[in-house]
């Protein structure tokens, strides 16, 4: 074809980002990052379906299957069809009957709920979109959702599904009725070396499971170590976790140390006991335990509880997975000694003590620790470059003499030191529900992502409002539905 008679208009000039306003540029970045996450979920779901088919085909090749081959193939197809229908079914708040509030935090709340369809009990975490956006918590929400969705470990609280409406985000998780490790510390004040070894070993398995997924938890503390009905632990509350994705990038700890100290050194975020007036000795355990109860109140704040945080997060140094092992050392210290190693009456002083740990870290003279226990703690609460686990991961810590004789692969088959006594599947006796406001239905009041027990999350307003791009774009691809059990 002769093209001489055709005239083509010049291509329009490519417009630079400066040609648009900040709102348009921010929305473009969010769309790019979240579209990536959205299609990643689609690819993952297709791969998982293919793997299930290959696994079923391998099972059918077993001669022992015999005449049941056709029946198993048909059941597999029915399960897949049921799951596809489940994916198309809209999940909404009206599908659940609220039972009791079991946790609150700064941006949300967690309720014990019963699903109308199957009658099962779950923990439903609710987060306010407006609070997530206005307080720049979007990376925390995405990190928690991704960590729980990607995990299929017995050491991590199971996420069944996530959904949303115009005002809120929801995470439906398994209900762990045993409460958390902090509740056990409040009840028993101090653990023996054997009991500490048991919980430390299980925490190592839980932290290792998250690290294997490529996530750093960054908020390992007794409140986030949940106890199941058999007395074994599961790791929860991934609101501060960091994956190596742009959508997980945030600066939660930026400028914490630049904040002014509380006036006159008065307590901040503590309501009952001034720790600075208490000598940290064995004889004062009752007062120290009262301070520990008041420490739970800090989890309702946006800052959270800093007692177990590694110094690298405050000083602006680079860090990696080893920061979670510092937190493990701090928890082991508290289990054996009775209080955290850098306990102070306000978060500002705690930050300062942690950053200056070489001058502030010590073992009390009146508390005896076995040399192996003391060495393990010192090997975890130390410089990141020489910290146990910084080179060989969890395997380094498992090989420490303190864990001699521990079979890490059979921990969940061992009887736990403390097993909760439960009256029913709705039993909440292991949670401080009496300290939380209870009401009928789902509250329209406060709600937070940072909770004291992993089921916690609070304070925001869930009133209906106009749906804007700022409330839609950040949450594209947030919905998740697990194949196993959710639709059974």
UniProtKB/TrEMBL annotation:
Enzyme class: transferase
Top-level taxon: Eukaryota
Catalytic activity line of the entry: L-seryl-[protein] + ATP = O-phospho-L-seryl-[protein] + ADP + H(+); L-threonyl-[protein] + ATP = O-phospho-L-threonyl-[protein] + ADP + H(+)
EC number: 2.7.11.1
UniProt keyword Nucleotide-binding present: yes
Coiled-coil ranges from the UniProt annotation: none
Keywords: ATP-binding, Kinase, Nucleotide-binding, Phosphoprotein, Serine/threonine-protein kinase, Transferase
Keyword S-adenosyl-L-methionine: no
A GO MF term: protein serine/threonine kinase activity
PANTHER family, per database record: CHROMOSOME UNDETERMINED SCAFFOLD_135, WHOLE GENOME SHOTGUN SEQUENCE, MYOTONIC DYSTROPHY S/T KINASE-RELATED
Family, per entry: Belongs to the protein kinase superfamily. STE Ser/Thr protein kinase family. COT1 subfamily.
UniProt protein name: non-specific serine/threonine protein kinase
């Amino acid at each position: 074809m002769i093209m001489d008679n055709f005239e083509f208009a010049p291509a329009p000039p490519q417009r630079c980002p400066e040609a648009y306003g900040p709102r348009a540029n921010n929305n473009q970045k969010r769309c790019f990052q979240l579209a990536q996450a959205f299609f990643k979920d689609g690819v993952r779901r297709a791969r998982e379906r293919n793997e299930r088919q290959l696994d079923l085909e391998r099972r059918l090749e077993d001669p022992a299957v015999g005449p049941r081959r056709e029946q198993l193939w048909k059941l597999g197809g029915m399960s897949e069809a049921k799951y596809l229908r489940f994916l198309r079914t809209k999940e909404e708040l009206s599908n659940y009957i609220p039972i009791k509030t079991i946790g609150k935090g700064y941006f949300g709340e967690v309720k014990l709920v019963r699903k109308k369809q199957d009658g099962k009990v779950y923990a439903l975490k609710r987060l306010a979109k407006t609070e997530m956006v206005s307080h720049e918590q979007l990376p925390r929400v995405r990190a928690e959702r991704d960590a729980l969705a990607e995990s299929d470990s017995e050491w991590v609280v199971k996420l069944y599904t996530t959904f949303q409406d115009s005002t809120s985000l929801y995470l439906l998780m398994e209900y762990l009725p045993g409460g958390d490790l902090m509740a056990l510390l409040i009840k028993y004040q101090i653990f023996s070396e054997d009991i500490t070894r048991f919980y430390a070993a299980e925490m190592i398995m839980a932290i290792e499971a998250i690290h294997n997924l490529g996530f750093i938890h960054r908020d390992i503390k007794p409140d986030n170590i949940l106890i199941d009905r058999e007395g074994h632990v599961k790791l929860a509350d991934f609101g501060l976790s960091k994956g190596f994705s742009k959508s997980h990038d945030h600066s939660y700890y930026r400028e914490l140390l630049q904040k002014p100290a509380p006036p006159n050194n008065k307590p901040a975020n503590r309501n009952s006991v001034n720790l600075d007036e208490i000598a940290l000795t064995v004889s004062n355990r009752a007062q120290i335990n009262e301070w520990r109860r008041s420490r739970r109140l800090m989890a309702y704040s946006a800052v959270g509880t800093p007692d177990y945080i590694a110094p690298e997060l405050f000083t602006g140094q680079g860090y990696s997975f080893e920061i979670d092992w510092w937190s493990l050392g701090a928890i082991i210290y508290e289990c054996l000694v009775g209080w955290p190693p850098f306990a102070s009456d306000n978060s500002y002083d705690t930050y300062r003590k942690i950053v200056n740990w070489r001058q502030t870290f010590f073992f009390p003279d009146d508390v005896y620790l076995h040399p192996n226990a003391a060495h393990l703690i010192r090997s975890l609460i130390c410089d990141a470059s020489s910290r146990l686990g910084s080179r060989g991961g969890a395997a380094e810590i498992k090989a420490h003499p303190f864990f001699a004789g521990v079979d890490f692969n059979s921990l969940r088959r061992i009887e736990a030191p403390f097993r909760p006594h439960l009256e029913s599947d709705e039993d909440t006796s292991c949670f401080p529900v009496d300290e939380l406001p209870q009401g009928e239905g789902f509250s329209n009041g406060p709600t937070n992502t940072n909770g004291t027990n992993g089921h916690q999350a609070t304070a925001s307003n869930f009133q209906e409002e106009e749906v804007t791009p700022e409330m839609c774009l950040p949450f594209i691809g947030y919905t998740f539905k697990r194949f196993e059990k959710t639709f059974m």
